[in-house]
């Protein structure tokens, strides 16, 4: 078979890694749908229950690069299977959790495991596929995470409504068992294993090019979440019927799946070169919401385009960080692979906070301008990175 084609084994591995990220994503996101159930059951405020979400995101962002650096020399297959086992155990404990403190502690530990497993899934997808198919493979692995938001969260919410919030963790525990069995039979034994010091690992974060590449997805996600965080108030301002808002949000999620597929195509050739213009188009799409939301149908079409642009950057920036690490610190590709998921969490937090500041200053729709400006900043950073890449190629 031609070396650039994907074999059945390749596809089986892609499917296994995608199902793993689906399970991890469902566990992370479904908490949003059951927050009110948890708050009433544990007799805490909704705001206090909300810390279960923010604590997860903060822990994910801070601990993932640290753990990836410390464990870079671990055998990947055994380490992944062990972590999936820990994930199953933590979710099973959530089923019997009876206090806020216990649940918060379990969610923090789950965040650590989730961040490391997602990063490892990205590395395995990157290093086991033919070079020209890495973008496709990684877009599928990200696709599992995207699908979790669209499918996993509603399923979890339905289960909580029927059987109580503890039952949703029984659901994720069972999903974890399925992911473990699939990984046990499919993950290859001959995965790379790099021995390096923690100093070698973290020296990667002192490289200006790596830091620039990190802020590209952070700004890209920030641009979207400046607006997406306040999408429900925007829809209400468009006079969307209350019963249709959840349907619109579901549609938004479905479109984001196509965004993920396109992300793989963009990454297949001249990824950073293409991404320069993707961000400029994103800026136009976000800014135009200022006007289109005056018309219900036009506004919905524009929101659909916003979803389509939302995660086009993921695969390209993931591969870019890994490729830059190969140049500047080859022993730290594991740490590099963890930076894109971290950057996305940083971008989401930044965009939400920025949108909140703008919203509270007055006109809600000003968030569209600010989101557009952030997208332009992402484009400028990508233009400069691309310029430096071309300069380096000429010197080589």
What does this protein look like?
- The chain is mainly α and 396 residues long.
- The chain contains 16 helices and no strands.
- The chain has helices at 8-29, 35-42, 46-70, 76-95, 100-128, 134-163, 165-186, 198-203, 208-228, 231-237, 242-267, 271-292, 296-310, 314-328, 333-361, 366-395.
- The radius of gyration is 21 Å and the shape is globular.
- The mean pLDDT is 89.
Short description:
By secondary structure, the protein is mostly helical.
CATH uppermost class of the largest domain: Mainly Alpha
CA-to-CA gap between the ends? 33 Å
Largest sheet: none
By DSSP, the count of extended strands is 0
SSE order = HHHHHHHHHHHHHHHH
Helix percent reads over 70%
Radius of gyration: 21 Å
Spans of at least 5 consecutive residues whose pLDDT stays below 50 are none
Overall residue-averaged pLDDT value: 89
Q: Give the percentage of residues in beta strands.
A: under 5%
Give the overall shape, derived from the CA principal axes: globular
H/I helix tally:
16
Topology summary:
Layout: H1 8-29, H2 35-42, H3 46-70, H4 76-95, H5 100-128, H6 134-163, H7 165-186, H8 198-203, H9 208-228, H10 231-237, H11 242-267, H12 271-292, H13 296-310, H14 314-328, H15 333-361, H16 366-395
Annotation keywords:
2 domains, Growth Hormone, Chain: A, 0% strand, mainly alpha, 396 residues
């Amino acid at each position: 078979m031609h070396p650039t084609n994907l074999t059945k084994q390749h596809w089986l591995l892609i499917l296994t890694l995608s199902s793993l990220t689906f399970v991890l994503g469902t566990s992370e996101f479904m908490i949003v749908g059951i927050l009110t159930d948890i708050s009433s059951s544990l007799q805490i405020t909704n705001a206090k229950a909300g810390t279960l979400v923010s604590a997860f995101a903060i822990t994910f962002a801070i601990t993932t690069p640290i753990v990836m650096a410390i464990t870079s020399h671990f055998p990947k297959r055994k380490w992944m299977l062990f972590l999936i086992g820990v994930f199953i155990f933590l979710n099973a404990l959530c089923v019997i959790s009876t206090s806020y403190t216990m649940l918060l502690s379990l969610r923090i530990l789950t965040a650590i495991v989730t961040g490391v497993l997602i990063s490892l899934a990205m590395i395995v997808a990157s290093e086991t596929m033919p070079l020209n198919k890495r973008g496709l493979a990684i877009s599928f692995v990200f696709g599992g995470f995207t699908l979790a938001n669209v499918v996993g969260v509603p399923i979890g919410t339905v289960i909580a409504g029927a059987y109580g919030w503890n039952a949703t963790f029984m659901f994720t525990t069972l999903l974890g068992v399925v992911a473990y069995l699939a990984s046990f039979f499919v993950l290859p034994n001959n995965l790379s294993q790099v021995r390096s010091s923690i100093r070698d690992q973290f020296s990667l974060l002192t490289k200006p090019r790596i830091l620039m590449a990190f802020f590209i997805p952070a700004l890209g996600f920030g641009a979207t979440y400046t607006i997406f965080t306040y999408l429900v108030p925007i829809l209400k301002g468009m006079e969307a019927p209350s019963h249709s808002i959840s349907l619109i949000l579901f549609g938004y999620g479905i479109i984001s799946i196509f965004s993920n597929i396109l992300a793989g195509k963009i990454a297949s050739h001249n990824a950073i070169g293409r991404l320069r213009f993707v961000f400029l188009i994103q800026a136009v799409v976000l800014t135009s919401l200022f006007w289109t939301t005056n018309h219900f149908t036009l506004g919905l079409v524009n929101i659909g385009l916003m979803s389509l642009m939302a995660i086009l950057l993921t695969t390209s920036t993931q591969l870019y960080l890994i490729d830059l690490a190969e140049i500047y610190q080859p022993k730290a590709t594991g740490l590099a692979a963890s930076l894109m998921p971290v950057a996305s969490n940083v971008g989401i937090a930044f965009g939400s906070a920025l949108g909140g500041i703008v919203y509270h200053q007055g006109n809600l729709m000003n968030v569209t301008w600010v989101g557009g400006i952030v997208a332009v900043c992402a484009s400028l950073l990508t233009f400069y990175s691309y310029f430096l890449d071309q300069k380096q190629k000429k010197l080589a």
